[in-house]
Amino acid sequence: MAATATMALPSARSCKPNPSTTTYKLSSSPAATTLVMSTPFAMNSWRCRSSTLNGSAILAADVGAGGRRREEKKGGEDEEWRKYMLPERLEVVRQLEAWVEEHVLPLLKPVEASWQPTDMLPDPAVMGTEGFHAACIELGERAAGVPDELLVCLVTNMATEEALPTYQSVLNRFEGTRDATGTDGTAWARWVRGWSAEENRHGDVLNRYMYLSGRFDMREVERAVQRLIRSGMAMHAPSSPYHGFMYTAFQERATAIAHGNTARLVRAHGDGVLARICGAVAADEKRHEAAYTRIVGKLFDADPDAAVRALAYMMRRRITMPSALINDGRHADFFAHYDVIAQNAGIYTISDYRSITEHLMRQWRVEELAAGLSGEGRRARDYLCALPQKIRRFEEKAHERAAQAQQKPNTIPINWIFNRHV
Ligand SMILES: [Fe+2]
Ligand SMILES: [Fe+2]
Fold first, then answer.
1. CATH number for the domain harbouring residue 45
2. Which of 111, 178, 203, 320 is the most exposed place for a label (fewest CB within 10 A)?
3. Tens-place pLDDT, residues 243-292
4. pTM for this model (two decimals)
5. Residues of 280-307 as b/e, b for ≥16 C-beta within 10 angstroms?
């Protein structure tokens, strides 16, 4: 992978020490006096609060006198990312099209060379009826050893994949790269459709495995998927290709990690079929991550000031999981509870969040950015360079909270697994 192999503006970066990178400001906003995780690890749902106020007091202040301030702040935020809709900025994106054709589209696999869900699961067309039934029984026996917390994580991973209509809509909101007609011939549009077609196999294979395993109340799972797609997902700077591709690069790596961790853990519990499925999905996610990381790398090369400001904008607001609105139809705070399960199971943790942040910043050589940065760009770079250390402090707190939580487990019945408590 060569995310930043070709640099349009080599002078935009410098390996020399830069005075403004030697000392990083740890907090740029007085409002961010203490950042806490909303759950023991809360991979994506951080919130700021004053050390003397609890969450509901903050909310009340927001709704009351602070409501106007919040609206004003929101207007300012909108103004910030809407600058990325200006013609000169979109021109940067448009000029990348030939490069996308050459360096991004080849990351898609031809249909003939792609695995299909049927390759991973018992197939009556190959095995015959008896062989198929025997293989299904064997699949169920292997699945019987997978613990409940991993089953719950698998449902969320699968529902996240099944919500693909939401993500294709997200990509088709990006100005300058969208597939306007549904059959556009641009390299951008062909990427979006090809990527979506590959992603579509992920939900299919997980769903089918789950159905055959007999370990899930599939009707409840199906309802959760329907609810999630109905709810959609919130995304900052929703039409900006700069911000959007950064979000997507982060998310592809996050899903690769989550599926990869699932593969490792279920294999340890004896389910080689599920491990192979999750491994294949994770490998796809890594290819997709490479594509989006390359795209953003080119944006950093061509337009470093705008790129670094966009990245800081996204990271200040956290990269939230696309499944943040998932729920079981019964618990209002279901996702917060799920966060804890995923952390404790080792599927996706705040340490993963930090490692993704560090990895992408290395890929995009954020620390080396120097020439061509505005004052705002330098502040954005310094904020980003200080961020991993900041997250590390939350990790320590998260581990402490997780240890405390294990003393007094707070479980809920989850209908996806027949109301067993997790
Ligand atoms: Fe996927
Ligand atoms: Fe993906």
1. 1.10.620.20
2. 111
3. 999 999 999 999 999 999 999 999 999 999 999 999 999 999 999 999 99
4. 0.84
5. bbbebbbbbbbbbbbbbbbbbbbbbbbb
